[in-house]
Amino acid sequence: MGLTDKVNFPQPAKFILNWGRKYSLWVMNFGLACCAIELIAASTSRHDFIRLGVIPVAHGPRQADMLVVAGTLTDKMAPALKRVYEQIPEPKYVISFGSCSNCGGPFWDSYSVTKGVDQIVPVDVYVPGCPPRPEALLEGILLLQDRIGKESLKEHYQRREAEEPEPAFTSTVPIVVGGGSISDTSIRDE
Amino acid sequence: MTPDEIAAHLTEATGAAERSDVAHGEVSVWVPNDKWVEVATHLRDCGRCHFDLPTFLTAVDLEEQGFEVVLHMYSVRRQHHVNVKTQLARDEPRLPTLSGVWNGLNWCERETWELFGIDFTGHPNQVKLLLPVEFEGFPLRKDFLLMTREAKEWPGLKEPAEVEH
Ligand code: SF4
């Protein structure tokens, strides 16, 4: 990873580095159910998250920066999600899109659905809704970009190393779209 | 053939139909367990019924009355349907496999086995299809406990009629 994980860059260099990172997010689309359709809608011309620098459909997890889990994760599928997450190189971010991936959603009592993908991978942004509108995903992406812009890569790597081999799910405050996070400066500026 | 003709034909040709019932334009025929394979083979081979598409095979949990296995067949050529049903005892439900008659029923039977715990004797590969391998229990049985519901009842209303206006 070179210098980025060893040195705290001075503010101008950090600004430019993060500015480049946050407007070039390749998405690994982990579409599992109805929510995947909204995710696809967010990538096409009407909602168009490409204008925010988010590039849909990375060629594979190894080329991706961001994982969007959209839909119902079942226990049978969970190992596949874990594997995809582990194949994405650092720095990586996870958006949990929709009630199903947040908490099980309408399948809250199901025998086969994983109640929350945060049991499997650490989540940065939660987008609630069944399904959320594409605009909600756009807000989630903006909030994530906000966080990336302020982030120190060195601290990011140190945190991830401390989490090895299992992610500690409490190390960052997750962002919840519509949870007041956009106006809550304490979360925005942490 | 009309639904009634199919029922009459099955009773006549196989002598296996215990009773039959017509609902929504489709006939259901109940057969004894030991005639299960024979009836399915007849439906496939008989030129008059010519059932060439087994649409699905599944089961119904009837609680005290045990289980009912349902095989739905369609004839593309003659465009008629039939539901063949058989009743099984609740403890150790067991039925001979139909995967020798229709290869495609192999997966339907695996699914019925993992969800209802009905053992298809002679099945070539009775392993889990949709559930994780570690899964315990038969989740579509009515006595299967959903742990989330055990921990907390559904807090909302269950029926539209319960809503007070
Ligand atoms: S949250 Fe709703 S829309 Fe999204 S995958 Fe689940 S059921 Fe479908």
Question: Can you walk me through this structure?
Answer:
The complex is a heterodimer of chains A (190) and B (165). Chain A is an alpha/beta fold and 190 residues long. Chain A has helices spanning 11-22, 34-43, 78-87, 99-103, 134-150, 153-163, 185-188, and strands at residues 25-31, 54-55, 66-70, 93-97, 125-127, 175-176. Chain A has a six-stranded parallel beta sheet. Chain A is globular. Chain B has a single domain (3-162), classed as NADH:ubiquinone oxidoreductase Nqo5 subunit (Beta Polymerase, domain 2, 2-Layer Sandwich), CATH 3.30.460. Chain B has four helices and seven strands. In chain B, the strands form two sheets. Chain B has a five-stranded mixed beta sheet with strand order 1-2-5-4-3. Chain B has helices at residues 3-14, 36-45, 105-116, 147-151, and strands at residues 19-23, 26-30, 53-61, 67-74, 81-88, 94-96, 119-121. Chain A binds chain B through residues 75-76, 108-112, 115, and chain B through 130-132, 135, 137, 139, 144, 146, 148-149, 154. Iron/sulfur cluster (SF4) is lined by residues 33-35, 71-72, 98-100, 105-106, 130-131 of chain A.
Give the overall pLDDT of chain A as a whole number: 83
- Which sequence of strands runs across the widest sheet of chain A? 2-1-3-4-5-6
Structural class of chain B: alpha/beta
Q: Which quaternary structure do these chains form?
A: heterodimer
Total helical segments of chain B: 4
Give the overall shape of chain A. Answer: globular
How do the helices and strands follow one another from N- to C-terminus of chain B? Answer: HEEHEEEEHEH
Q: Give the CA-based shape of chain B.
A: globular
Query: How do the helices and strands follow one another from N- to C-terminus of chain A?
Result: HEHEEHEHEHHEH
Q: State the separation between the terminal residues of chain B, measured CA to CA.
A: 50 Å
Write down the CATH topology of chain B: Beta Polymerase, domain 2
The greatest inter-chain interface is formed by:
A-B, 8 and 11 residues
Percent range for helical residues of chain A? 25-40%
Query: Count of DSSP helices of chain A?
Result: 7
Strand content of chain B: 15-25%
**Spans where pLDDT lies below 50 across 5 or more residues of chain A:** 181-190
